[in-house]
Amino acid sequence: MKRRTYLATAGALTLGGCMGFGETDEPRGNDSNSSDPDGNETGNGDGNGNGNGDGNGDGNGEGNGDGDVPTEAETFDDFEDLSDWQVVSGSATPYTDYSVVGSQSVLLEASEAEDQVRIARELDEPLDMSEITPGLAVASHSTVNVGIQLYDESRDKVVYRQRTHGMSIRHVNFGVEYINGDPDLSAITEIHISIWVGDGTAEAWIDDLHFVPKPDPTVLLQFDGGYETHYSEAMPLLEEYGYSATAFVPPSRLRASEDDEGDRLTEDQVAELADAGWTIGSYGAHGNDLTALEGDRTPASEIEEAAAWLEDEGYDAEYVAYPGGAYNDEAIEAVEANHELGFTGGYPVNGYLTNAALCPRLVHPDGDEAREALETTAELGGITAISFVRFDGGVGELEATLGHVQELEEAGEIEVITPQDVAGEYVL
């Protein structure tokens, strides 16, 4: 993979008078939380970056090719100077102990009486964001919902969001939560950054507001947990539509034969999925929450054991999904050491990824949620990964999703891709 570099453009746009501040953007619940029978929640929006860029911008904006669309992640604001930002609610203070570019980050905090923290920057000249997506570096001690709102002159907006868990400061891949009105992304006049306190913490650190290019509209299909229904119900349906997918399996949960009790795949069924063109990835050795392991099990041992099994069986051991979408620094580091891509929960319609270790996904959406995500992907461009878990109530949601994927694909508006495609083409 290419090493990510940042081309500093901080200060290229300056703050004018502030207008229309103080709106509330409560998250709309795209971080679906589906539970598996082992007690692991899936679909917690994670999508975080690893902060491994060198952070050395040249300050001149060169190196982006012939057009205006960046070919690398570009720093827009390194928060070395906070005078461009107005604090709308809560507080925003410099913090020198955390940073990924420059010498400081910004500590955002809300008081007990406030439901959000929000800072806002109005631009002297409109910014064309039709071909780029925003991102941040984020640190927190617990779960936070961080949003980036892009407003045009008419106050229509696109809201990008990511839900992150407790971690040291890392870059985060943001996805689209919702669109309000008909925003003109070629003429963005305001950028807001907010933390919604309603279902998370009132404190987080942010750094490096940056932009990444958007890929053409693409979708990945995935299945978590290694359940037999992925073989008995999902595989025939995908064959009918002509698609393959990725199965993230926990090797220690697999059954030796179909005669054994349980609802997990057998090793032979996993092999048949692979023969049908599916990618076989890791769901950790036991499929348990990597942040709540007991005994002598650690995130590293769970990740390494599953990766070794994949290699021994001749599968591509480069891809993993975090069980339940849960992670911490130790889990992230284990994934980085053993895999090319790590998938978790989050919001759809992502740009190029600044962090391969935490790739966002929409987890087990209903038919309407999947349709909305796919249509937004086709409209705006970007990567949307959709994962399903169990099918206790049948495969209606999966079938509805596949039907809409096919409609968009046949219209030339979207392409179904694989983790191999993402690793090879869409990681900065």
From TrEMBL:
Residues 217-428 form the NodB homology domain. Residues 42-66 have a biased composition (Gly residues). GO terms for cellular component: extracellular region. It is found in: Secreted. Coiled coil: none annotated. Residues 15-73 are annotated as: Disordered. GO terms for molecular function: hydrolase activity, acting on carbon-nitrogen (but not peptide) bonds. GO terms for biological process: carbohydrate metabolic process. Keywords: Signal. PROSITE patterns: NODB, PROKAR_LIPOPROTEIN. This is Polysaccharide deacetylase family protein. It comes from Natronosalvus rutilus.
